[in-house]
Design goal:
Length: 161
């Protein structure tokens, strides 16, 4: 029988204060898989989540739901309002506690792009762009984001052995 990991109050407070970071990329060619028909967010109360984690989880849901409306000739892209960042073909997304979100991808010219944004500045528009001609199927990052978020959440909540 495995003994539970026992922490002092100071150790528990320190562990709670350590920032978490999650990043998911859709650049590899693995199939995205299916996300279970649930909200794909951490079941913890919102009050226990950082602003970055909560914003990230909701963006994952928006992206996944947006992609369900696309045909096989289009992929999701994100426009950033209030800046000159333009439109970003989403290839990855992440957060860094407590308050930063990151977006990876390429712009309209195909230039590799990364945007790091504070959650208080988050203001995006989801757009459908034609898939790249060299790809057989459109990349569906929303399902991959949701799947990996669930995996990361499950791993973070698993008791230490």
């Amino acid at each position: 029988m495995t003994q539970p990991d026992i922490s002092t109050t100071a150790e528990a407070a320190e562990a709670a204060a350590i920032p978490r970071r999650i990043e998911v990329s859709a650049i590899d060619d693995d199939p995205a898989g299916d996300c279970p028909q649930q909200d794909c967010v951490n079941e913890r109360p919102v009050a226990t989540k950082s602003p970055a984690e909560w914003a990230y989880e909701r963006l994952v849901l928006y992206i996944r739901d947006f992609e369900t409306q696309l045909d096989n000739e289009h992929e999701v892209a994100m426009g950033f309002t209030g800046s000159d960042a333009g439109v970003l073909r989403i290839e990855g997304m992440g957060f860094f506690d407590p308050d930063m979100l990151t977006f990876y991808g390429s712009d309209a010219a195909g230039v590799r792009t990364q945007l790091v944004q504070h959650v208080s500045q988050l203001n995006v528009i989801l757009r459908a762009l034609p898939k790249r001609p060299e790809t057989a199927a459109p990349r569906r990052i929303g399902f991959r984001l949701a799947e990996r978020l669930e995996d990361a959440t499950r791993d973070a909540e698993a008791p230490a052995t």
